[in-house]
Structure of Cyclic pyranopterin monophosphate synthase:
Amino acid sequence: MTDQLTHIDENGDVRMVDVSQKADTERVAVAEGFISMKPETLALIVEGRAAKGDVLACARVAGVMAAKKTSELIPMCHPLNITKAKVECAPVTDGERADGRVGIHVTCTCGVTGKTGIEMEALTAASVACLTVYDMCKAVDRGMEIVDVRLLKKDGGKTGLWLREE
């Protein structure tokens, strides 16, 4: 791990990191997010009664699409030829979280064989999947809250495996 910001050059200017000399390696990143909501909103989603349709299917597709578009959204992010983008959305009911919140837990796993990591794609996918749930349910619950968007794991490249410690 470096102690310097890699997207800032010696003059303090923002730059895209030159990865041309790096070796292609298999890289994987896993990120998560959570959208809390009223129990009634969660019931609408789980029972398939949301007015806009299948909320979880739409969130999964939106997450995959977001992973593929990450370099268009994050200015210094390299475009990657993603080989894997999987988004999982799991309902969380009373008592499953320490804070007592109910909602949807999103997990995204992204993979690539390339010269740079895929953490931003996994984080973007998790974020957009949560935002999609919000968009599809905001008519009934504007108080939903997106929390705990974070990297859980990254593997590959020069720095190897990194796991979030709880």
